[in-house]
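User: C-alpha cells for this one?
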Amino acid sequence: MTEALVQLADVRKTYGALVALDNINLDIQQGQFVVLLGPSGSGKTTLLSILGGFVEATSGQVLIEGADVTAVPPAQRPTVTVFQDYALFPHMTARDNVGFGLAMRKVPKAERHRRAEAMLATVGLEGLGARRIEQLSGGQRQRVALARAIVVEPKVLLLDEPLGALDLKIRRQMQEELVQLQRRIETTFVHVTHDQEEAMNIADVVVVMNAGRIEDVGPPERVYLRPASLFTATFMGDTNIISGRVTEVHGERVKLETAACSLVVEGTAQTGADVHLSIRPEQLYLGDAPEANAIALGDISVTSNVFQGPNRLCHAHSVDDPTVQWIIRQPPESTAAAGLVMKMWVRQSDIVLLRD
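Assistant:
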C-alpha cells in the first residue's frame, strides 16, 4: 500500500484536566470517503478541527502528503472545511461565493467566474450563479458551500456535519449527491456525523470514536456486522449483547458458557474471562433452523411484534431465563405473535466476540 495521504500520529488534545483526544493514530488514503462517527463529546469535531488547523494539538503530529502541517495555519494547508452553517457571504451571489477562494489566490476575474460557473454545474446548480444566497433553498446553499470548497482543489475536504441542518428527505438526497460528487472529483473527504445511518450510506471507511479514542476503523459493512468493541456494537444500531464466560481456548476458537447455551466462536480471549457477544436482530431465526449446523439458542417467548414496513421488530425473552431479553428482526410476513413460544437459532458465523 502506498503512503497514506493523511497521517495522524499520537495526536492528543487536552483542555486542562479534560482529555478531548487520547493518542489518536489514523491513516487516510488518497481518494477515500472517511466518516468520523460518534456521540456528542466523542472528539470527532475536535479531530476534524485539528486536521483543518483551527485547533492546535497538545501533542502528536499531523502529516499531509508526508509534510508535517501540525503547526501550519488553516489558510496554508491543502485542506478546506465546510461547516454546518455553510458560512456563505449573504451579500454575494452564488458565483461570487464559489469564486471567493480563487479571488484570495489572485485568480483573474474572468477565469474565476468561468471556474465558479463550471463548479456550480458540477454540484447541480448550473444557471444559478447570479442568485443571491437568500434566494436559494437549504439544499442549494449546501451545494454552494461544497462548490466553494472544491473549486480551490484541496487535497482533503473536511465536512463538519454539513447535512445536519437539512430535513430528512433533503439530507438523504444530499448523501447520495455527496458520494457521487466525491467519486467524480476523487478528492479525499473526511466527514463528521453522529448519524449511524448517514455514516453507513456514504463512507468508504468509518472511524468510530468514543471518549476521545478510536474504537473501531473499517468499511461500514465490517464495522456493523463484525464490530470490534462493545461500544461499537451497541452504537452502530440495534444488537443483542450476550454475557458469557470462557471455558476453553483453542487457538482462535473460544468456547464459552452463556445463560442461553454453550457456544464456540472465533476470536481470542483468556480461559475464565468474562466476555460479551453481539448478535444483530436480523441474524436471529425463529422456528426452523436456517441451516444444518445452526446453533440453537433455546426457546423464546415473543412479547411484542411491531410492523415497520420492510421488517417486523419483535421483542422476546428466554423461556428458561426471562431476564434474558432479545430483539429480533423478522420478514414482514412473520407470524411471530405476542405470547407465542418458538425455537430460536443463529448461524455460528454471525456471533461476534467483542473487545470490552
